[in-house]
Design goal:
This protein is an alpha/beta fold. The protein has one domain: Glutaredoxin (3-Layer(aba) Sandwich). The protein contains six helices and seven strands; from the N terminus they run H-E-E-H-E-H-E-H-E-H-E-E-H. Strand 3, helix 3 and strand 4 form a beta-alpha-beta unit.
Length: 165
Amino acid sequence: MMGIFGSGFSQQAPKVLKKTFSREALAQKLENEEGKTVTIQQILDQHKGKVLVIDFWAGWCRDCLNALPKARELEENNTDIDFVFLSLDRSKEGFEKSLERFDMQDKENYWFAAGWKNDFNNYIDLNWIPRYMVIDQKSAIARYYAISPEDPEIQATINKLLKKG
């Protein structure tokens, strides 16, 4: 039997794949690049009627940085949907530096000023980044758990929501 560290334990898929958000999760506050506070609910409301991909990442996360080219490809191949990037950088300065360093300024970016452990991340079982979620046109969760932008389920979910293929 493999030890905990070699088993991929930390990126185990959650047992329950949720379809909706709790009131506490929706009330979670983040900051945008200007330092303005917004809630998850406000972010979802801005994208209602569109398919939305949420990309959790951080500038210190090697797996996230390795995934960035494929995440950009996913975005380029799906110009009819929206993308939001939620940063788990450890400080406002780190968030700002990461956006600049990895050429993310033209994207819709938010930062968890509250840190990793917060009502939203706890609710969605955030145990690893990168993490991707697909949200449908009514702000329900269509794809709860993916840890690679190359996960074929992401594109399949997008296609199904857009009635393609």
